[in-house]
């Protein structure tokens, strides 16, 4: 039916809009040599239907479009630049841009868009820049950006975002800069930025984050610049920032009163740190950054007495430039920090120091030792620090052997990591019913008694990672029914903790990496234990066998089984996992992959990782069933001489075939042809014959002598003998990509995905054939 109506549209167009060179809507200005059309400020309420089809740049700023309907740009399929700023747009209907496969820049700034729907940006498969700033976006629906695999820059500044859910930016496989400044963000889900492996710059300034979102940020391995300025953070504790490539960090204009000397211990490459305009009176030397060049303390009330001396000496020794001035004592006031000699940083006798303090009428003046945290003014256990405003309490690394009691009733984040609890008895956390997030990492816990967390009825996040647990009591989580994110990685669990998990109906993300689990038995089958589990991480256990159906689950989206001891593909274990999108099997030792190994999950799978598995041979049909839905495939570091048929994988955005000893001879011709055909960079090298070893499959000439058409050991015949030339767009209506029936995508919460989903729509034509990386 859709096809029929599309055909009718096309037919109607053909009858009413004969193509004439140089036609131009009345209200617009057209340049037929540059192929640009500009209709700025004309109070247009719809896109003029008579814009010349061959237009490349279309400027529609300052109009009154209100809603962009499906197929809004069907008349102009060759656009590369589209400007829709200030058009009063409230809603972008799904499929609005579906015909715009060549657009590289889309500007939707200064409109009134409030929700980004799952399909709002479908079809923009070449888009590099998307401007959505100055709108009213308060919700990003799952999958909103999945089609934007080439996007480099996304601007969402000046919107109304409060929370970023897990996987919000999924699909942005080439994103470099993500701009979220000037929103009202106060919470980022731990996996909010998951999958953004290419992100190098992130702007989160001018938001309402009260804590540094350590866990979320740790996922961003490639980020070099992070702007967090203008967020109301008071304190940065040990190891708050663990970002191995970070070079520039902006933490100015926050409310920092204290910053641990270990806060940046996980940022070894940091070269510029801006701490301007905070409330810091002193600062400990910073351990971690080895290449720090400048430390900006401008606008802080830095008190230049003996407590600042370690910082000053450290800065001189390490060549760190200190910016800012002393506020006192009087004889040093306004003196640049860089100019004060360490020996001038003195504390006078205790009496004088005290007098100084009274004069200043300030409780944290010069004589407070530098390690003191802002003074608690509320009830708070000994050796803990409770911040009533931030609803945050921490007793991190204080050598506690029992869980302290008496936290403020409103505490939402309770940080007890790095203590020595050994054993957690029942009811260990009375009066903490408001706590949402509980940290118990590195506490040497080997036993948790049933009911230990009883009463924690709002607990969503529980971190029990890096303890000594060998098993879990079935009642462990009794009384904490909301628990959604559970971290048990880095323990010594020998079995999947089936019975304990059965008390957690809401569990969605489970981390079990680095344990000693050796098998998954049928009794631990997920639907019966944790029916809502979406992400399961079992990396680095000792799993050798997985029973049939053990991992079947209607909701499971992510499954990591890498670094285990599997010797066979776990195909049987996944016979009913209709929503699985990401599967990692890397670093197992599976030598042979048989035909149809992924058949049961082929409809949903988007990312498949099979690196370093010692695979020697794959059936030509090993990947059969997988099609355009697959976005990432890695098979790096195996022993493959031949590859399975990759041609059906037309939606790949990332493919890594490196470090395989490929046999560069005629049977590899289909791969070579495929590489010429796809619009992404494929690296694959020859391992054989010896004279070609190390050369790129793309560069060797051996294939020119192969018969023009060979039948590989399947029955597929190679077509497209010569690489096709890219033709210039010619104005011809027949080239307008037709609107196709929209594929039904499984919704996140669908109990069962439709088995026979229609194939994905074809990708719209691209401008260049071999698209390399943008930057
Ligand atoms: C130091 O920080 C202040 C305030 O954040 C800023 O205005 C200034 O430009 C910074 N100076 C340098 C050299 O980065
Ligand atoms: C697995 O865990 C062990 C112990 O935690 C660690 O030493 C090792 O590096 C990990 N292996 C991988 C492949 O991550
Ligand atoms: C190359 O692409 C064309 C058009 O998409 C397709 O028909 C052909 O089968 C492809 N050839 C190979 C070797 O993948």
What does this structure look like?
It is found in: Secreted, Extracellular space, Extracellular matrix. Residues 23-57, 379-413 form the LRRNT domain. Pfam families: LRR_8, LRRCT. The protein has 775 residues and is mainly beta. It has a domain at 1-160: Ribonuclease Inhibitor (Leucine-rich repeat, LRR (right-handed beta-alpha superhelix)), CATH 3.80.10. It is 7% helix and 15% strand. The protein is built from seven helices and 43 strands. The strands form ten sheets. It has a 14-stranded mixed β-sheet with strand order 1-2-3-5-7-9-11-13-15-16-18-20-21-22, covered by helices on one side. A 13-stranded mixed β-sheet has the order 23-24-25-27-29-30-31-33-35-36-38-40-41, with no helix packed on it. A two-stranded parallel sheet has the order 4-6. A hairpin with a 4-residue loop joins β23 (385-387) and β24 (392-394). The longest helix has 15 residues, at 2-16. The structure holds 2-acetamido-2-deoxy-beta-D-glucopyranose (3 copies).
């Amino acid at each position: 039916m859709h096809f029929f109506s599309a055909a009718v549209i096309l037919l109607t167009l053909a009858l009413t809009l004969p193509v004439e060179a140089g036609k131009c809507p009345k209200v617009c200005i057209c340049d037929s040599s540059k192929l640009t059309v500009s209709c700025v400020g004309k109070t247009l309420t719809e896109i003029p239907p008579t814009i010349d089809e061959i237009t490349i740049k279309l400027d529609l700023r300052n109009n009154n479009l209100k809603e962009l309907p499906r197929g809004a740009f069907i008349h102009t399929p060759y656009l590369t630049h589209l400007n829709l700023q200030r058009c009063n747009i409230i809603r972008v209907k799904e499929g609005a841009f579906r015909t715009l496969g060549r657009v590289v820049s889309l500007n939707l700034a200064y409109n009134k868009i409030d929700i980004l729907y799952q399909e709002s940006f479908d079809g923009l498969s070449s888009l590099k820049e998307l401007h959505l700033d100055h709108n009213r976006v308060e919700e990003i629906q799952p999958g909103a950006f999945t089609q934007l695999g080439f996007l480099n820059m996304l601007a969402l500044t000046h919107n109304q975002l409060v929370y970023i859910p897990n996987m919000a930016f999924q699909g942005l496989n080439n994103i470099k800069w993500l701009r979220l400044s000037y929103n009202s963000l106060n919470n980022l889900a731990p996996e909010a930025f998951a999958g953004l492996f290419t992100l190098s710059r992130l702007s989160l300034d001018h938001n309402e984050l009260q804590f540094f979102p350590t866990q979320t940020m740790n996922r961003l391995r490639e980020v070099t610049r992070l702007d967090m300025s203008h967020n109301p953070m008071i304190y940065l504790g040990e190891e708050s920032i663990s970002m191995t490539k970070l070079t520039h960090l902006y933490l100015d204009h926050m409310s920092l009163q204290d910053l641990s000397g270990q806060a940046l211990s996980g940022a070894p490459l940091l070269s510029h740190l801006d701490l301007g305009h905070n409330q810091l009176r002193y600062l400990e030397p910073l351990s971690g950054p080895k290449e720090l060049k400048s430390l900006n303390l401008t606008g802080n009330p830095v008190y230049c007495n003996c407590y600042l001396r370690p910082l000053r000496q450290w800065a001189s020794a390490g060549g760190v430039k200190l910016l800012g001035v002393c506020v006192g004592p009087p004889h040093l006031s306004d003196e640049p920090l860089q100019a004060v000699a360490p020996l001038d940083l003195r504390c006078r006798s205790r009496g004088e120091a005290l007098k100084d303090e009274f004069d200043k009428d300030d409780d944290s003046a010069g004589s407070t030792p530098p390690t003191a945290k802002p003074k608690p003014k509320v009830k708070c256990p000994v050796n803990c620090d409770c911040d009533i405003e931030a609803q945050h309490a921490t007793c991190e690394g204080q050598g506690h052997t029992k869980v302290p009691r008496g936290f403020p009733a409103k505490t939402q984040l309770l940080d007890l990591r790095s203590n020595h609890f050994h054993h957690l008895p029942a009811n260990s956390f009375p009066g903490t019913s408001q706590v949402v997030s509980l940290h118990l990492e590195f506490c040497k816990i080997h036993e948790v008694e049933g009911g230990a967390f009883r009463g924690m009825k709002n607990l969503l996040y529980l971190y029990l990672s890096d303890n000594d647990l060998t098993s879990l009591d079935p009642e462990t989580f009794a009384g904490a029914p909301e628990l959604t994110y559970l971290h048990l990685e880095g323990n010594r669990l020998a079995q999947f903790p089936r019975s304990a998990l059965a008390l957690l109906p809401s569990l969605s993300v489970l981390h079990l990496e680095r344990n000693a689990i050796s098998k998954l038995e049928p009794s631990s089958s997920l639907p019966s234990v944790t029916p809502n589990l979406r992400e399961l991480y079992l990396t680095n256990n000792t799993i050798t066998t997985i029973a049939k159906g053990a991992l079947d689950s209607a909701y499971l989206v992510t499954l990591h089984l890498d670094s285990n001891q599997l010797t066979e593909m776990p195909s049987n274990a996944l016979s009913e996992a209709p929503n699985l999108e990401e599967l990692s099997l890397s670093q197992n030792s599976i030598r042979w992959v048989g035909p149809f190994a992924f058949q049961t999950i082929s409809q949903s799978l988007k990312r498949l990782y099979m690196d370093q598995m010692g695979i020697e041979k794959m059936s030509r049909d090993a990947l059969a069933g997988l099609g355009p839905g697959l976005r990432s495939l890695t098979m790096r570091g195996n022993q493959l001489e031949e590859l399975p048929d990759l041609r059906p994988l037309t939606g790949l955005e990332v493919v890594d075939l490196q470090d395989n000893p490929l046999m560069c001879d005629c049977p590899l011709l289909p791969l070579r042809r495929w590489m010429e055909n796809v619009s992404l960079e494929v690296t694959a090298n020859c391992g054989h014959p010896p004279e070609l070893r190390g050369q790129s499959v793309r560069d060797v000439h051996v294939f020119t002598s192969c018969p023009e058409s060979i039948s590989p050991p399947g029955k597929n015949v190679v077509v497209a003998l010569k690489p096709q030339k890219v033709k210039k767009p010619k104005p011809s209506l027949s080239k307008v990509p037709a609107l196709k029936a929209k594929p039904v995508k499984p919704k996140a919460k669908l109990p069962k995905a439709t088995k026979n989903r229609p194939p994905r729509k074809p990708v719209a034509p691209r401008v260049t054939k071999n698209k390399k990386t943008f930057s």
